Amino acid sequence: MVGPTRIGLAGLAVMGQNLALNIAEKGFTISVYNRTTSKVDETVESAKKEGNLPLYGFHDPKSFVQSIQKPRVIIMLVKVGPPVDQTIKTLSNYLEKGDCIIDGGNEWYKNTERREKAMAKLGLLYHGMGVSGGEEGARNGPSMMPGGSFQAFKYIEDILLKVAAQLIAEAYDVLKSTGKLSNEELHHVFSEWNKGELLSFLVEITADIFGIKDDKGEGYLVDKVLDKTGMKGTGKRTVQQAAESVAAPTIASSLDSRFLSGLKEERVEAAKVFKSSGVGDILTEQEVDKKKLIEDSAEKGWDLKLGELARFWKGGCINLAILLDRIKKAYDRNPELANLLVDTEFSKEIIERQHGWRRVVCLAIKSGISVLGMSSSLAYFDTYRRDRLPANLVQAQRDYFGAHTYERTDIPGSFHTEWFKIAKQSKI
Fold first, then answer.
1. 228 in helix, strand or coil?
2. Quick check: helix, strand or coil at residue 55?
3. Residue ranges of the chain with pLDDT lower than 50?
4. Are 70 and 7 in contact (CB under 8 A)?
5. Distance separating alpha carbons of residues 126 and 102, to the nearest angstrom
6. How much is the pLDDT for 405?
7. Euclidean distance between CA atoms 96 and 256, whole angstroms
8. Where are the domains of the chain?
9. How far apart are CA 298 and CA 292, in angstroms?
């Protein structure tokens, strides 16, 4: 190693190893460290095999920290919780004022804020930067979500820009269960979708999945995969935080879908109960227009990610989508845009496509197929576009039973009405 390295990475599980190799491959010299030294040797060996990438391994924290150029920047990719605090403690023994630690785990933001304050007292910078995309994403194009000290972000902006690289399941369910598409047809449909505005890593791998035969038996592997999704907590934390200030029905519905998928045994028993009653058989005898269904499902491929966030997600392996470019442009046109729904381009397209969206949801409902994300998104749209909602009745009820007061549409201020008295008098 000639001179200090550009950056350090501590924590060499699968994600850490792949991100370190990705950074090195982009031409940045990187030092790596792991408490279990065999992981260090393993990563160094991988770097050699991939063309002598500029990656250097260290077995002790002191030499690791001292090998990095000042101000030092170290990415941590360790398990969330106590291991993060332990790693911070270990590294901070050798860090100097102005140095920076970046937590690459999907940590709860309040823990990140706590650590940022504690580090600031030591004259150190701390930055949260969740890394998403799994093993493949970390190696070839992770989605990275930096948040915290802007000064810390500027330390690594050049690296991030080079390295950054549930509704799909519902569409699959409708196409397969109602449209009766075979895996071969699904493979073709998703392959075609990936050539247009729905181009993304998830659509691409979905097409791949439908084409893979089962190596342990007859048929396709996707049909043998257990329909029971795991939970990592990211979605739960997102919904909890959103509940404090914004509506996030699509994300909440995705979370609900995950919870329900985990109840496999209960669902199997419930299916026995309802199957005999004919629930979901409404369209069994009805011919479904496959071509129209595919077109309608494709039209539902719009997204609601906001503003500048699109820039960080744009290169991410999971969400590499043409649509994110368009989202970014919408906020370039109007940085104060309240909602993508009211952007001139997006509103025009939603108006044109809403009929297909509604047809897919209606068809799914008639077929007894759950499309929580699609239907919740539609409900959000239909709520957001109305200038008056029935919440006036709710406010009147609250004032009636709890004297919570209410506002009027024609006069400013808060009002309270003795609803009970007036109602009682009218009955006399």
1. coil
2. strand
3. 164-165, 277, 279-280, 282-285, 300-320
4. no
5. 6
6. 86
7. 45
8. 7-144, 151-385, 390-426
9. 10
Q: What Rg value do the Cα atoms of the chain yield, rounded?
A: 26
Residues with Cβ within 8 Å of 226's Cβ and at least 6 positions away in sequence, in order, are 264
Rounded Cα–Cα distance for residues 47 and 20 (Å): 9
Other CB atoms within 10 A of residue 93 CB:
10
Q: For the domain 390-426, what is the CATH superfamily, name and number?
A: 6-Phosphogluconate Dehydrogenase, domain 3 (1.20.5.320)
What whole-number distance in Å separates Cα of residue 95 and Cα of residue 209?
46
In tens, the pLDDT along 253-271 reads 666 666 666 777 777 777 7
What's the pTM? Answer: 0.52
* Exposed / middle / buried, residue 23 (Cβ in 10 Å: 0-12, 13-18, 19+): buried
Question: Identical fold at 7-144 and 390-426?
Answer: no
Rounded to 5°, the CA angle 368-168-331 comes to: 125
Phi, psi (degrees; rounded to nearest 5) at 162: -85, -35
Taking the domain 7-144, which CATH number applies? 3.40.50.720
Amino acid occupying residue 231: M
CA angle 257, 258, 264 (to 5 degrees): 95
Q: Which CATH superfamily is domain 151-385 in?
A: N-(1-d-carboxylethyl)-l-norvaline Dehydrogenase; domain 2 (1.10.1040.10)
For 76-133, where are the alpha helices, taking DSSP H only? 82-92, 109-121
